[in-house]
Amino acid sequence: MPLTGPNDIQGVWATILCRLDDDNAPDLAAIDEQVAAYARAGCDGVYSGGTASEIHTQTDIQFREISARFAATARKHGLPFQIGAAHPLAHGTLGRVSFARTLDPGAIQVTLPDWTPLDLAGVVQFMDRVSEAADGTPLVLYNPPHAKTVLAPSDLVEIARALPTLVGIKCGGGDRGWYREMAPLLEQISVFIPGHHYATGRKLGAHGSYSNMACLSPAGAVTWARMSGREALELEGRIASFMADAISPMLNRGLPGFACDKAMAAAGRWTEISPRLMWPYIGATNTDVTQIRFAARRHLPEFLKAVHA
After folding, report:
1. pTM of the prediction?
2. Are the beta carbons of 81 and 75 closer than 8 angstroms?
3. pLDDT tens, N- to C-terminus, the chain (309 residues)
4. What is the Cα–Cα distance from 165 to 151, expressed in whole angstroms?
5. Which CATH number fits domain 11-307: 3.20.20.70, 3.40.50.12780, 3.40.50.1100, 3.10.450.50?
6. What ranges do the domains of the chain cover?
């Protein structure tokens, strides 16, 4: 069923992660296990093809196999789902979007071309062609802080005005001023921010998160999302301490964020996975995983307890 915006795309959405077999290829059985775990945890939706899914390392054949398996198991569990069809090259995006729409997802996530930056006119032109390839399937624009073209709120307002099929955006969020600038969009499209900022983001007007905290514990992330007021903000403070203790040191030594996401899943032990990444990336170490679990026990014991509840 197509997703139409804030009413359909809100709360905690969780990503599939690539468990690797002995040949360093994605183990498709892990998709079934992870989606089942997300359904048990009460996640609001699931998605594939984000950075944490290592889409930038997948061959086109792997992308198709993963997307098809994911769509089938998400449908089996009755979870709303989106398929990420990101590609660093514009024509590559069109090919992946054309395939993704055949799987009838609620929406397709796309990124902007990433070799050189685009101006606003170029972004609109690109998104218009993507919309044609999607053939009526709603679109979610994934515009992370590390993208070559990071869009300002005023740009997003213009793009949404020009593209009726745009129903959501995944972005880095911002301060109160950023949310004020985003106000014209907040009733029109779903705005998702980083998972560890969930409580403050929701308070300021965001609709939810494609959650990195669900990598540590899907049930923990959902439980936090259902809290309100001071309780939710207090937990967010402890999440910030956890991130500073466990994740920032990994980022500071050059590990990418998606390596941290996978290491968090290994530490959370809600799914069987190692921190190893697909070629050519180097993942976190087993020592990193142990340190993440230790930090979670210290700062977020309820996240680890939720795994076994």
Report:
1. 0.95
2. yes
3. 788 888 899 999 999 999 999 888 999 999 999 999 999 999 999 999 999 999 999 999 999 999 999 999 999 999 999 999 999 999 999 999 999 999 999 999 999 999 999 999 999 999 999 999 999 999 999 999 999 999 999 999 999 999 999 999 999 999 999 999 999 999 899 999 999 999 999 999 999 999 999 999 999 999 999 998 999 999 999 999 999 999 999 999 999 999 999 999 999 999 999 999 999 999 999 999 999 999 999 999 999 886 655
4. 18
5. 3.20.20.70
6. 11-307
